[in-house]
Amino acid sequence: MPSSPTSSSAPSYNKSENRHQDGSHTTHSQHKRSLSTRIVIVVLLYTLVVAAIVSGLQTYRAYQSALQDVQLHFKEIESSYLPSLAAGMWSVDQARVNALLDGIAKMPDIGRLRLQDEIHQTESRQHPLFVKALFSRSFKIVHTEDDEQFVMGELSVDLMDVEIQKNLIETAKSIAITTTITLMLSSLFILFLLRVWIIRHLKNMADYVQKIDLNHLDYELKLERHNSHTKDELDTVVLAINQMRLSLQDDISQRNKLDQELAKHREQLEQLVSERTADLQKKTAQLEAQSQELLQQNQELDAYAHTVAHDLKQPVSNLIAASDLLNTDKLQLSAEKSQSLLASIQNSAKKMHAIIDSLLLLSNIRKNETIPSVSFNTKLSAMEACKQLQDFAQQRGAHIELHEFWPNAYGYEQWVEEIWSNFLSNAIKYGGENPKIELGASLAEPGMVKCWVKDYGKGLSEAQQKAIFHHFVRFDVLAAEGHGLGLSIVKRIAAKLGGKTGYERTDDGGSLFWFTLPASE
């Protein structure tokens, strides 16, 4: 079948749309019959029904005609055979009578004969296929002699419909075969006309609509038809599709103009929103930073107040009590007692001095925003902390061991020594009797050095681990001197230097305090 002109001059369509449309067209053709096939099936079924009705009427008329023809046999018997049969019986010519009965029995549609004479003797003939009588009739056999009539007997005739049924079956077969062939030829001809006149043009229309590109609407739909043909419904559909194409073209043109204007306004709006959002985010970040800073300051102020109220109360009380005793004239104190009171005043002053130094260090850490980080040897800083706590370690009988591997790190060495001192001091205090303490450093996550202090004390519970780095936390008042700002200072120093702090309970039940610093290349 030749293709439509539009198929040879069609625009380039979107490939993804073609794949989708071709797939949907294939699925459509797989699951649905074509229009021409459905029309032919409907016409064929309708024609079969009509043909069946017509064939039934024709068969019925043929059956009625056959019944009338059958009944003519009665007249033939009455006019042709009864006079001869009466003469043969009058003359007692049995051979003639038998010959006449055989002749009647051989007539078409004769099922059974029964001849009864005046003395009630009977002669009968019956067809082999006779089962049931279609029509029955009895004839009086009368012989006329000199205008006088003598009843010779009675002839009973039964007609059957075996031949009629046979003929009707043959007739019905002939009608069915003829009708079927005629319908098949008519259906094929109708299918051919539908495909040539309608279906191929509808397919071209469908292909045009499926492949139409909204960005290229300059190609109109044309069908491969003679220009001289009479305008019909297909031309009306083509005209409607082309008008729809022009309307879409105008709408898309207007839409493109509106899209351009909307895009321009959208860009301006996005730029304005971006600027406003950036400004708002900046202000929000400043407010959050200020809020966090205020929260930390409040927490530190609470810690300062708590520390001053709690930790300074006891040494000040001791100092006042000792000084009052020394200034009392009524008491006669021995030299040893006086020396003891002076030592108590000195220890209380040292304790107050240590607390004030810790508070000043915590305040300096909070105020300093830029830290002068340099590369330093972590082992040297750990050894310096051990040197500072040498007397305290000897008093507690502590045994301190340093590991061999010590990588360099970035930080403020004076503050790092403060971390070592705090961890080491806690290990000496809480490490048990004659504590064994290990110090070391290793490369942890990429770009970080992990420094740690390990002791073999009883370790901390889960609740204690959660609060260990908070302000003013001391878990064993009886076993430890000092105040509760040490580990909170450690946490603040590590954070300022770009690291973290943490606690781990070892497999042997001890404690491992650690902090991280940026690794030095």
UniProtKB/TrEMBL annotation:
Its EC number is 2.7.13.3. GO terms for molecular function: ATP binding. Residues 196-253 form the HAMP domain. SMART domains: HATPase_c (SM00387), HisKA (SM00388). Keywords: ATP-binding, Coiled coil, Kinase, Membrane, Nucleotide-binding, Phosphoprotein, Transferase, Transmembrane, Transmembrane helix. It is an enzyme of class 2 (transferase). Residues 16-25 have a biased composition (Basic and acidic residues). Residues 1-12 have a biased composition (Low complexity). CDD domains: HisKA. It catalyses: ATP + protein L-histidine = ADP + protein N-phospho-L-histidine. It comes from the Bacteria. The keyword Protein biosynthesis does not apply. InterPro entries: BphY/WalK/GraS-like, HAMP_dom, HATPase_C_sf, HATPase_dom, His_kinase_dom, HisK_dim/P_dom, HisK_dim/P_sf, Sensor_dom. Residues 307-521 form the Histidine kinase domain. This is histidine kinase. It comes from Undibacterium danionis. The lineage of its organism: Bacteria, Pseudomonadati, Pseudomonadota, Betaproteobacteria, Burkholderiales.
